[in-house]
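Example (one chain per record):
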Amino acid sequence: QVQLVESGGGLVQAGGSLRLSCAASGRTFRSVTMGWFRQAPGKEREFVAAINWSGGSTPYADSVKGRFTISRDIAKNTVYLQMNSLKPEDTGVYYCAVDPTLYSSSASRSKASYDYWGQGTQVTVSS
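Predicted structure:
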């Protein structure tokens, strides 16, 4: 069983920054891939960023590359998403998720790979 709790969302103006956190339970945190996805009203949930067990694979969606940074703190069982230069189109509910594959060499961009999901945290970027 895996429990994920997101935090750090809120309302910001365009150009501002937020840092999202996802606290995870489970003893396999050190060995799995963690991902961030987002969902805007009326749209499908889409990939944002992910990080594999070693931190050596950190893919990003083209729309956020250069603005967002994913990281993890193994000691705290927490993954972060630093979001800079936010745009109105970044608005949505952000979810963290776990791909339980052990020791993946490449973090997956596909939501089908992720079996565990948090409840989400709202990010709203005003223009």
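Caption: The beta strands are 4-7, 10-13, 18-24, 33-39, 46-51, 68-73, 78-83, 92-99, 116-117, 121-126.
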